[in-house]
Amino acid sequence: xxxxxxxxxxxxxxxxxxxxxxxxxxxxxxxxxxxxxxxxxxxxxxxxxxxxxxxxxxxxxxxxxxxxxxxxxxxxxxxxxxxxxxxxxxxxxxxxxxxxxxxxxxxxxxxxxxxxxxxxxxxxxxxxxxxxxxxxxxxxxxxxxxxxxxxxxxxxxxxxxxxxxxxxxxxxxxxxxxxxxxxxxxxxxxxxxxxxxxxxxxxxxxxxxxxxxxxxxxxxxxxxxxxxxxxxxxxxxxxxxxxxxxxxxxxxxxxxxxxxxxxxxxxxxxxxxxxxxxxxxxxxxxxxxxxxxxxxxxxxxxxxxxxxxxxxxxxxxxxxxxxxxxxxxxxxxxxx
Length: 336
Prior knowledge:
Layout: H1 3-29, H2 35-45, H3 54-64, H4 71-83, H5 98-132, H6 144-151, H7 155-169, H8 189-225, H9 229-236, H10 241-253, H11 255-266, H12 273-279, H13 284-293, H14 297-325
């Protein structure tokens, strides 16, 4: 792979991030609401400032957040701040900074989603391949109906069932949260165990749904691969069943799976919004939902910008590593 190809891919990455970030700036502004006005009215309803001149206070906050400037000037300020990785202050939770809000929620989401995505990919890919492989045990074929059922059920519905059965009825797991309310945040083994304990139900709800999706996708690819001439030739050579399964079957069928894995890893920052809401999990998805509720521009900008970057980087890495996985793929132009 030449430096020109890498430079072209990096330029395309920058273009994608810029276009997506521009759309990210303008879309929240389409809502017919003023987030600062909503926040001040809420405080007045709670008795936080009955004698305050609302218009003067609104003008002061608009000036503080730069919302009194023309939209184009706000956009240029947004681009400059984003290039410096300055995500600004939260409107709804001022004076909290967006980077602090995202930084606090990020480890929770990455820990939950990254782990479940990788485990779902591994288990689903292997199970899907075994369900259709001629030399596998017959028991794997009986798993297909269950995989189809779980793949058709959304994460949050599975989560609600798990909460009702294992948390509400049996009391084996907590109903919600990432850890106990009175838990000491000091890093210790007891804290790690409690966080893992609270994450089991959300993780299981995601795994049960994603394993079926990965398995059915891999199953379809393995059906296609087993009809290829090189599979027949490998069998005629007398190669062992395990070698044909891994080196000839899985290796050639897994490429579309890896592309989907890259997309899934790119979506881990917001891929579990409903799961985090159902379980009250303190992740990025829940923060994004709250920001959309309050029309908190700068928190929305920050989280979506991180999402854009992770997806773009994941696809760039996939694009650059594809030729290493499959020698048939080359970043060269075909001669006419």
